[in-house]
Design brief:
EC 2.4.2.8, binds magnesium ion, glycosyltransferase, Rossmann fold, 4 helices, hypoxanthine phosphoribosyltransferase activity, PRTase_dom, binds 1-O-pyrophosphono-5-O-phosphono-alpha-D-ribofuranose, binds manganese (II) ion, Hypoxanthine phosphoribosyltransferase
Length: 181
């Protein structure tokens, strides 16, 4: 395994943990959707790496599309305002949509996205999130596929950033407080 980056306090999920769990999620999604084709929607930028690994473990016909939404900017807290920075290229109407997200925190991003996509008349809409923080605020979001529950700490790596950095770490770890305090 790679040496831990100096800005990381501790590793929560190693490269091996991630590979094993993402593979399980892909196989579960495949088993649950026999005979269907999927429109897999990744939420840029954080979910790009998860999406890339997830789809390689799904053996169904599928299309990949991307939407860019941002609520955090460069801060460590959600701004509370969700903005669409890039819309989908494909039509959602009549499709089985699977949203691939890296992390469900306050739930603001996903609840906005699901409302937005539901208004475009998909055949179905489901969520696969790699990580979910256990907080009361997002209790009402229905995630069919969850990779790991994670602690309420500021985490980075495997797509997750702080001020656009650390997305390329192959593991997920807790960022040292000294980096952002
Ligand atoms: C992060 C993360 C999720 C969202 C989760 O995205 O990738 O999309 O926040 O937080 P929430 O449940 O509180 O909405 P961010 O807005 O930082 O954009 P990014 O994906 O480009 O990093
Ligand atoms: Mn994101
Ligand atoms: Mg971010």
């Amino acid at each position: 395994m790679q040496v831990m980056h100096e800005d990381i306090d501790k590793i929560l999920f190693t490269e091996d943990d991630l590979r094993a769990r993402v593979s399980e999620m892909g196989h579960q999604i495949t088993a649950d959707h026999q005979g269907e084709s999927l429109l897999v929607v990744s939420v840029l930028r954080g979910a790009a790496i998860f999406m890339a690994d997830l789809v390689r473990n799904i053996t169904l016909p599928l299309e990949m599309d991307y939407m860019a939404i941002s609520s955090y900017g460069n801060g460590v807290k959600s701004s509370g305002i969700v903005r669409i920075l890039k819309d989908l290229s494909s039509s959602v109407e009549g499709r089985h949509v699977l949203i691939a997200e890296d992390i469900l925190d306050s739930g603001l991003t996903l609840s906005y996205l699901m409302r937005n996509l539901e208004s475009r008349n998909p055949a179905s809409i489901e969520v696969a999130t790699l990580l979910r923080k256990k907080t009361r605020a997002q209790a009402d979001i229905d995630c069919r596929y969850v990779g790991f529950e994670c602690p309420d700490e500021f985490i980075v790596g495997y797509g997750l950033d702080y001020a656009e950095r650390y997305r390329n770490l192959p593991y997920i770890g807790v960022l040292k407080k000294s980096v952002y305090c």
